[in-house]
Amino acid sequence: MKTKLLLPLFMAISLLACKRSEIAPETSENKKGFKLNKISAAVPTSSSSLYRGLYLDSTSYILGDTVKENKVLNWCVANKITAITYYDIRRSLELGKSSQLADFLKRARTSYGIKENAAVVASYWRVENMIDTFNNNKVDTLKRFNWIHFELEWWNGESTFTNYISELANIKAWGLTQTPKVRTENYIGWFTDPSGQDSLMASSLIQNSHRIHVHDYYPSPSWNYIQNRVDYLGRAAHALSKQVPIIPIFDADLAVTGTYFQTNSFDSAYETVINGYASSSIPKKSNVDIIGYQLFSYSETRDARPLPKVITFKVNNAPAKPISGVIRVYDNTNKLIDSENFYANTNVLEPLKQPNSWRMEVDVTNAATVRYVMEVYIKGNFVESFTIAGGTTRTLMKVPYPSGFHDLQGNVTLTFYPY
After folding, report:
1. Distance of alpha carbon 31 from alpha carbon 216, whole angstroms
2. What is the distance between the alpha carbons of residues 47 and 134, in angstroms, rounded to a whole number?
3. What is the SS3 assignment for 213?
4. pLDDT, tens only, 71-115
5. Are residues 399 and 292 part of one domain?
6. Are the beta carbons of 175 and 124 closer than 8 angstroms?
7. Does a structural domain hold residue 41?
8. Which of 19, 177, 200, 346 has the most neighbouring CB atoms within 10 Å?
9. What is the sign of the dihedral through the CA atoms of 246, 252, 255 and 260?
């Protein structure tokens, strides 16, 4: 979402070079004053079916690099992402990465639960000459895009609204001719240019797409900031006898909402919006369904809420009679962060959380009659060794020993062999 905005009492901000600008109109949606009677709202989407979307801003950069692809997909799983919206498709295809893109789409669907995959376009020409060719060259439908995300900021002068709707209508018509069908969504900023046409524009947007993204770019997620736009969309949907799915977009850029996400979850941002929606006085709630949220963008959300580091344990040279034990990880305040039981003959243990500064304790029971040595390696570097007599349990073996903390991040290997 290439944008910046002017907020009340909030300085104009400089976003990344890849972003275009969005200036909030004078009729800011932070203003209060609606004196409307409440009516029953549509029931908000449940947590289990919540739409959680992510803009992938670095598609061409990660494709074909398994490590980078896995980092994106693992981050998505950890944050329950159900949809990815892909920028950078043109460059990916120009670099000859069509097969890598197709493979990534299928892997995201089948192995990571990301069922909705949308290509960002700024014109119908891109769909007709790029996405159509990409999709229809793939016999396996799991390797195709199943959504088109239209982004052309008419409110910032990138197009007239008339041209915007013409492009959007053509994209939707194309999608409905596909087998399987490809759905169409759009992203909007403000109902301006032309001014005073809010209801007309809202109606056109609803008729020519399946759902609508509305940016909520504020220092902390705010229902008030999107209320006017949602209100107009709800009224238009009511006039059309429709219900409009709406998705607020949160920007994790540190200059916008990133500091909020350092201490708050993405779901909590959605809850703030949905609670405001539930208690608001907009008149046509039953025609609005705020189905989830969209995050802009992977590079920024990853920095705001990085994956926790983990320790994976591998046990080599397992003895005939199992060695078993427990591993505990503490942070630099001696708070227990995680623990895991292990058995030497299972070889691989579940990952454990690994703080930036940490220590580890290991208890080992040796059921064999012979003495064993346990060597500890971190990222392949030898750290400590301990002996465990036959038929005994040795507890509180500290790594590092006897005190101190590790700042080394990476896999921990426990290697056992007869003394």
Report:
1. 15
2. 34
3. strand
4. 899 899 889 999 999 999 999 999 999 999 999 999 999 999 999
5. no
6. no
7. no
8. 19
9. positive
Residue with structure tokens 């465990």? 388
Question: What are the pLDDT digits (tens) for 187-196?
Answer: 999 999 999 9
Using alpha carbons, select from 392, 337, 331 the residue that is nearest to residue 366: 392
Kindly state whether residue 229 falls inside one of the protein's structural domains.
Answer: yes
Collapse the DSSP code of 419 into the 3-class scheme (helix H, G, I; strand E, B; otherwise coil) and give the result.
Answer: coil
Q: Which residue, 286, 304, 322, sits at the end of a domain?
A: 304
pLDDT in tens, 83-94: 999 999 999 999
Number of folded domains that form the chain: 2
Task: Tell me which DSSP letter residue 26 carries.
Answer: S
226 belongs to a structural domain: yes
User: What is the rounded distance in angstroms from the CA atom of residue 20 to the CA atom of residue 169?
Assistant: 24
Final residue in a domain of this structure, among 304, 334, 352:
304
Per DSSP, the three-state class of 60 is helix
Burial 174-194 (b: 16+ CB within 10 A, else e): bbeebeeebbbbbbbbbbbbe
Asked if residues 325 and 366 have their Cβ atoms less than 8 Å apart, the reply is no
**CATH code, domain carrying 196:** 3.20.20.80
